[in-house]
Design a protein that fits this description.
The chain has 103 residues and is an all-alpha fold. It is built from 7 helices and no strands. Helix 6 packs antiparallel against helix 7.
Length: 103
């Protein structure tokens, strides 16, 4: 019984909370107007690098259809320097095909 409990704790620790948010982040980015491929690539990178609080702020970015540049500009309004940096680099790497997540 104790071994099963330890195994369950280890398994849940292996899945970081931000990785569990991947689907929601990807959907929110698609709702904001990004393509499915770019949303998937960027969500992978962003859930690895941002906290749940930061991801929650970005999830609020809904509105008109946007391209990658417009999305990065919208993220600037959130006022979180790390979120801006991660979003901008993710957008650039995913759009160029240089992100390992896109391959």
């Amino acid at each position: 019984m104790r071994a099963a409990l330890c195994l369950a704790v280890l398994a849940s620790a292996a899945c970081s909370p931000s990785k569990l948010a991947y689907g929601q982040v990807k959907s929110a980015m698609m709702d904001a107007g990004l393509s499915e491929a770019n949303s998937a690539c960027m969500a992978e990178r962003m859930t690895d690098r941002l906290t749940l609080g930061q991801l929650q702020k970005l999830k609020q970015l809904k509105g008109e259809k946007r391209n990658l540049a417009d999305y990065v500009v919208a993220v600037r309004r959130v006022g979180d320097a790390e979120a801006i940096k991660v979003t901008a680099t993710s957008a650039a790497l995913c759009a160029s095909g240089l992100a390992s997540e896109k391959r």
